[in-house]
């Protein structure tokens, strides 16, 4: 990657299609469905931008921007490769295109030809090469497998290599704190120690003990937590062919490299978590056992977890919330309360950190789909089968907004609208734009608009 300002015009590898916005694009296929507008043929990602007033999406080999009420579709760029939408910048979108041997980043803005902002030659003969990227202030942080991370100033084009060497992407666990400007990283399947990459290029390793993914930043972004292992416990242990699992305590660090250990009141094997409470005062973790059959050739998940624990990060006290039902899994905290969400074959329940009686979630939420919390305390969530979208106002019963024959996911919200994907066969999905009660309903449209 050059250390000089990037060119102002879009550039593509030889043989690829140029990126232009002055060609007449095929029209977006927008239609009305019960409770929403549907945009057909959307790649499996989208981004809010313009302060939540617009949504960027990829359809028909083009990058589009549209208002959440379905109005004012604007072509941002024709695409010449498989795009990865990174994030909003100014009034535009930064995205990556991947081609054999090279990953290129562009800034696309309405009515202006896309501008190349970064180019990384990695030499691999495939397009789908492991990359990770995010926007931080006026910069693009780009991590390409096998190369030092790059910080690109999106205004000037200045490029700086960060750190001491490559960061694993394909087998890595990367967690970024935008507040602190720190990338925490480690191997996802091994018990290596967490490292911190600061945006001034320095690398810190707060501890030397074995630590386990995932790395969890607190809601404020000021502290991170992982499960860790004390010496002499025979952990982490191999689980299957390519995974190490099992912690003995929690390690909590900050962006400056300070590290604090939270040890349980009895010997435990920690097999899941940690999760932060919304106010950043509690950490939750699951203890249990590890199983691996002799001759295993593939990773195997830990055995059904045994007990749910919470830790007060102010005084270090642990609290045992009790055994989990058979076949149950914890998926983290409710987005607006200090209660944990536990799913079991019979449904789902909220487990309060004070040890009170679990309260059923009716209807249960979809596993793996985080509800969207609105500013007034309302929640948007998907049903357990991911085929119904609900809105729950504070103190009120859930209200059905969208009922779908196909599963849905990637739920987000901004202002008076929600957005989510409705999946079908193939590589594309429908992007559903859902007005929330109190917003203007979507105007009827003719399919193919």
Q: Low-confidence parts lasting 5 or more residues at pLDDT below 50?
A: 1-22, 293-301
Q: How many angstroms separate the termini?
A: 41 Å
Helix content: under 10%
Overall outline:
globular
Query: How many strands?
Result: 38
User: What does the largest sheet look like?
Assistant: 8 strands, antiparallel
Helices, by number, come to 0
Radius of gyration, in Å, reads 23 Å
Structural class: mainly beta
On the 0-100 scale, what is the average pLDDT?
Answer: 89
Task: Estimate the strand proportion.
Answer: over 45%
Q: What would you say this structure looks like, in words?
A:
It contains no helices and 38 strands. The strands form 9 sheets. Strands 1, 2, 3, 4, 5, 36, 37 and 38 form an 8-stranded antiparallel sheet that branches. It has 449 residues and is mainly β.
Topology (SSEs and partners):
Elements: E1 30-33, E2 36-49, E3 54-59, E4 62-66, E5 74-78, E6 82-89, E7 92-99, E8 102-109, E9 112-121, E10 131-136, E11 139-144, E12 150-153, E13 159-161, E14 172-177, E15 182-187, E16 195-198, E17 203-204, E18 211-217, E19 223-228, E20 237-238, E21 244-245, E22 249-254, E23 259-262, E24 270-276, E25 282-287, E26 307-312, E27 318-323, E28 329-333, E29 339-344, E30 347-352, E31 359-360, E32 372-373, E33 379-382, E34 388-392, E35 399-403, E36 408-414, E37 417-423, E38 429-435
Antiparallel strand pairs: 1-2, 2-3, 2-38, 3-4, 4-5, 6-7, 7-8, 8-9, 10-11, 11-12, 12-13, 14-15, 15-16, 16-17, 18-19, 19-22, 20-21, 22-23, 24-25, 25-26, 26-27, 28-29, 29-30, 30-31, 32-33, 33-34, 34-35, 36-37, 37-38
């Amino acid at each position: 990657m050059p250390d000089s300002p990037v060119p102002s015009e879009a550039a593509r590898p030889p043989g690829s299609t140029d990126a232009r916005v002055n060609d007449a694009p095929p029209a977006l296929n927008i239609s009305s469905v019960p409770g929403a507008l549907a945009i057909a043929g959307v790649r499996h990602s989208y981004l809010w931008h313009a302060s939540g007033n617009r949504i960027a999406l990829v359809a028909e080999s083009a990058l589009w921007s549209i208002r959440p009420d379905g109005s004012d579709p604007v072509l941002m760029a024709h695409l010449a490769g498989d795009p990865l939408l990174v994030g909003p910048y100014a009034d535009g979108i930064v995205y990556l295109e991947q081609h054999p041997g090279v990953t290129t980043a562009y800034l696309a803005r309405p009515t202006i030809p896309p501008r190349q902002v970064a180019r990384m030659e990695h030499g691999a003969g495939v397009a789908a090469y492991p990359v990770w990227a995010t926007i931080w202030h006026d910069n693009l942080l780009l991590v390409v497998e096998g190369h030092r991370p790059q910080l690109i100033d999106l205004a000037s084009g200045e490029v700086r290599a960060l750190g001491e060497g490559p960061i694993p992407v394909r087998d890595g666990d990367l967690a970024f704190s935008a507040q602190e400007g720190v990338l925490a990283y480690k191997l996802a399947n091994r018990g290596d120690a967490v490292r911190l990459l600061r945006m001034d290029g320095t690398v810190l390793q707060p501890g030397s003990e074995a630590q386990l993914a995932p790395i969890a930043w607190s809601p404020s972004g000021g502290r991170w937590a992982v499960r860790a292992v004390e010496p002499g416990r025979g952990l982490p242990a191999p689980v299957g062919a390519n995974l190490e699992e099992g912690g003995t305590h929690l390690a909590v660090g900050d962006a400056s490299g300070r590290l604090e250990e939270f040890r349980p009141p009895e010997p435990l094997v920690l097999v899941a978590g940690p999760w932060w409470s919304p106010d950043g005062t509690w950490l939750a973790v699951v203890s249990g056992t590890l199983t691996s059959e002799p001759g295993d050739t593939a990773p195997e998940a830990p055995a059904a977890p045994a007990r749910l624990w919470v830790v007060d990060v102010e005084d270090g006290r642990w609290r045992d919330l009790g055994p989990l039902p058979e076949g149950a899994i914890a998926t983290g905290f409710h987005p607006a309360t200090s209660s944990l969400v536990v799913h079991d074959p019979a449904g789902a329940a909220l487990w309060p950190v004070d040890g009170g009686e679990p309260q059923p979630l009716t209807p249960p939420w979809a596993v793996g789909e985080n509800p969207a919390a609105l500013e007034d305390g309302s929640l948007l969530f998907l049903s357990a089968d991911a085929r119904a979208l609900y809105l729950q106002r504070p103190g009120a019963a859930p209200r059905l907004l969208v009922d779908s024959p196909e599963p849905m996911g990637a739920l987000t919200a901004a202002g008076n609208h929600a957005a989510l994907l409705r999946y079908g066969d193939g590589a594309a999905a429908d992007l559903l734009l859902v007005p929330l009660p109190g917003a203007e309903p979507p105007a009827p449209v003719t399919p193919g608009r």
